[in-house]
Amino acid sequence: MISSISSYRLAASYTDYSQRQTDYSQQQAADSSTAKPDPNVQKSPGLKAGNAKSAGGKNNGELSESDLKVVSQLKKRDAEVKSHEAAHLAAAGGIATGGASFKYQQGPDGVQYAISGEVRIDTSPVPGDPAATLQKADTIRRAALAPAEPSGPDMQAAAGATAMAAKAQAELMQKNQDTQNGNKERLGTKINVSA
């Protein structure tokens, strides 16, 4: 998710993965009522069987089919979240105010999986420089739309950047018009003293 920070340090979240979060304890309760093995679950070699204990202390061989399914879902979610935030961070460049941060959920195997994340960027205009603001707005828009599947909040961030760019463009046009009008006024006030 992109989180923005303006010069006033007002933050707004821009991709909330927690809406799609899988809570394994709820999933496990739902799955235990049906308790049918899922043939589509791909078991990781480290989760099939064996005596190795996970960080949570449970033997990996002791995981039920529903637990293995949840671990598979959490692994997929973790990869999606990290890829999404990496795309934001790479496109943000110098306007990122730090690295990506993540919210984690512990799986039934005891491992922490990223379920949401954010990249904080500076979305404030460049004071007194509409040309630089225009360039910054373009960078913000590219950062917001960088992931393969931008979220609704990412789209809102891109729209905010588009509005910022439009305002900067209007300021640039006004500045250019004022400069041209100033030159015309100065030309009209010249006095020919060579006559």
UniProtKB/TrEMBL annotation:
Residues covered by region (Disordered): 16-67, 169-195
Name assigned to this protein: SprA-related family protein
Biased composition regions of type Low complexity, renumbered to the chain: 46-61
Transmembrane intervals: none
Pfam family, one: SprA-related
Biased segments, Polar residues type: 16-35
